[in-house]
């Protein structure tokens, strides 16, 4: 998923890059390629923290002899992913400052401070980094004290770290600001629960058929809700942005933004097909604790999710694409 997200973000970023403006310096390759890669890695790390925090709720608490060995592995991973999330958010601030204030070279601390003071985008990233560090702190407590640190607390802290991120993208520029922000936050929250939960199950629960037989039905119900929310909010957000800045339906094919909306929609449809395969064909066999190809199909679903995450990174830079 990580490689798919980074590759999709870099390729989409290059394909949708605006034409050079004569007389204005162009960002160097470190910014042009590094910024979408860092943002994609940030999103994947954040989704991983959410999914690993969700894992205790999926596994249940009535069989600690089976679940605790899995959670002892999951808790340190949560901390590591949270630190990676925070580091990516800080790196994104630096790269965005370079793109705006000093294309082609790294900005000074003074320039970064000026950028943060004048622009809302880095403020959202800094708040997200703060919540990521808070998630790491709560995760460290969970490493030490186990499930006496409520899973609900870990999930809430991680999700709250996602909510400032729409400030760094096109939602902050929309006409119906409040509604669009709510829609975007539902979109990123649903995506993280869906993607992160699936990744956590595949990595840690899939080898144990008994636990998987209980956890996968819980996740399947959650994933169905997330699919509906993510698809609806994604289409609403994308089409609204196009309606404000371009003509519909021509804007869907005539602008880089519209083309990326189509590409992301195709990814969501592919994920829905893969998810349906798991829910209707594999889930009954998982419940019966039979041998299945869940990891293969689940990995394919996660890979396509990674592509969607990478495209979403470029979509968040809407003002440069329409």
Automatic annotation (TrEMBL):
The entry's keywords: Cell membrane, Membrane, Transmembrane, Transmembrane helix
Q: Which InterPro entries match?
A: CopC/D (IPR032694), Cu-R_CopD_dom (IPR008457)
Which organism does this record belong to?
Acrocarpospora pleiomorpha
One Gene Ontology cellular component annotation held by this UniProt entry: plasma membrane
Q: What is this protein called?
A: Copper resistance protein CopD
Q: Where in the cell is it found?
A: Cell membrane
Membrane topology term: Multi-pass membrane protein
Membrane-spanning regions, if any?
A: 40-59, 79-98, 125-143, 155-176, 188-207, 219-240, 260-282, 294-315
């Amino acid at each position: 998923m990580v490689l798919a997200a980074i590759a999709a973000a870099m390729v989409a970023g290059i394909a949708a890059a605006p034409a050079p403006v004569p007389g204005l310096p162009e960002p160097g390759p470190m910014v042009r390629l590094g910024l979408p890669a860092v943002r994609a890695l940030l999103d994947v790390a954040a989704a991983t923290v959410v999914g690993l925090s969700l894992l205790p709720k999926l596994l249940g608490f009535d069989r600690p002899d089976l679940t605790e060995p899995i959670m002892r592995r999951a808790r340190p991973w949560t901390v590591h992913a949270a630190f990676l999330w925070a580091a990516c958010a800080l790196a994104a601030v630096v790269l965005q400052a370079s793109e705006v204030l000093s294309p082609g070279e790294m900005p000074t601390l003074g320039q970064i401070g000026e950028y943060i003071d004048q622009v809302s985008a880095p403020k959202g990233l800094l708040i997200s980094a703060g919540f990521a560090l808070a998630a790491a702190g709560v995760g460290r407590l969970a490493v030490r004290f186990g499930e006496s640190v409520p899973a609900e607390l870990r999930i809430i802290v991680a999700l709250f770290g996602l909510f400032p991120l729409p400030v760094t993208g096109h939602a902050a520029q929309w006409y119906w600001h409040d509604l669009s922000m709510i829609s975007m936050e539902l979109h990123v929250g649903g995506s993280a629960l869906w993607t992160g939960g699936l990744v956590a199950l595949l990595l840690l629960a899939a080898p144990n058929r008994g636990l998987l037989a209980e956890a996968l039905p819980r996740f399947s119900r959650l994933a169905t809700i997330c699919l509906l929310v993510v698809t609806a909010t994604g289409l609403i957000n994308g089409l609204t942005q196009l309606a404000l800045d371009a003509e519909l339906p021509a804007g869907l094919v005539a602008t880089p933004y519209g083309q990326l909306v189509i590409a992301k929609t195709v990814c969501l449809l592919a994920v829905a097909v893969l998810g349906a395969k798991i829910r209707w064909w594999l889930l009954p066999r998982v419940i019966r604790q039979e041998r299945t190809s869940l990891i293969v199909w689940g990995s394919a679903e996660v890979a396509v999710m990674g592509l969607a995450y990478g495209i979403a990174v470029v979509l968040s830079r809407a003002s440069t694409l329409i």
